[in-house]
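Slide 14.
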Amino acid sequence: MFMMPIMVQGAVSMQQRELQMKSQQIMKVTAWNNGSYSKSGSGYGLRISRQEDRDKYFKRECSPISLFLPEQQKPIKVNVDKNSFWKDRKACRELLSKEIGLWLIYKGYAKWPTNSPPEFELESEDFISFKLLS
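Slide 15: predicted structure.
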């Protein structure tokens, strides 16, 4: 005998729960540059907006992380095992990589008005693998 599943009012479906869990793994990041705007891509990165996100999604011992950039087949490796990344209050919460810089240049995000860097979302798949959403 086939029984239809009963949905209780207020119950959360599996799909809704998966979406909720997914949204809890997404953080805001902004483009970052050290002021040199090099065509080689050096001096660029992605700044994690909130220290709480750094602490929640990154682990120093899981360095280097794999970062998937949009439209790229292979991830890039980014070192997060740096003292500057983990300082408490004034931490440099940037994921730094020449490849991030080249991607920002290619996509037209390499220069921005003062104090208005491009914003992105970064999805944490685990402590080792991340995906930049465009």
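Speaker note: Residues 25-133 form one domain.
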